[in-house]
């Protein structure tokens, strides 16, 4: 203590001490500023959404959800698709989806398997993936699976899910994606397709839609 008093009592040393205190305060202010800037950046990344290339929002009530690209914390990557409820009241049939459609040409007459990863938080009703084959002239899909018999609910970590579906030669296009029904939040990522056999549904008239893209894109949401 006497040493400190002696140091402060010397004008020259007092000036040096003040300089040290100022420098420490300045460094502390810099650290606080870095923390504030980092917090704002993280908040921006987590609350702002842009369209994901190749995907489009859909569903019965897309205006009740935040839908788009989640910029951090994807499955084995930086980014992923995300749907989050943003209103307080929901009807029983309210849902939102992020969808992509391709021509059926590549998979005509085949049975395909779609595998994708999903993480959920506080899903009150249900969520899942869907895969369907559409006919150009019909108002309903030829084949369709939306995991309704095996819904994802509550809070879950990244988990792989699969859907197998026949693509008859009468199918014009294939639509797929993830959806959230009711309240909650979902993230999904790393979607892949493989042929696992021949379709069991037979048809004679080929009606694939060649006006839309043949191959899916941005399945890992990194674009």
Short summary:
With 223 residues, the chain is of the alpha+beta class.
Give a written overview of the molecule.
With 223 residues, this protein is an alpha+beta fold. Helix content is 20%, strand content 41%. The chain is built from two helices and nine strands; from the N terminus they run H-H-E-E-E-E-E-E-E-E-E. Strands 1, 2, 3, 4, 5, 6, 7, 8 and 9 form a nine-stranded antiparallel β-sheet that branches. The model is unreliable at 1-9 (pLDDT under 50).
Shape: elongated
CATH topology of the largest domain, by name, is Jelly Rolls
Rounded mean pLDDT score: 83
CATH class of the largest domain: Mainly Beta
Domain count: the total is 2
Return the CATH architecture of the largest domain.
Sandwich
Largest sheet: 9 strands, antiparallel
The CATH superfamily of the largest domain is identified as Galactose-binding domain-like
What multimeric state do the chains show?
single chain
List the topology elements:
Layout: H1 2-9, H2 11-47, E1 56-59, E2 65-70, E3 80-85, E4 95-103, E5 110-134, E6 143-145, E7 152-167, E8 173-181, E9 185-198
Antiparallel strand pairs: 1-4, 2-3, 3-9, 4-8, 5-6, 5-7, 5-8, 5-9
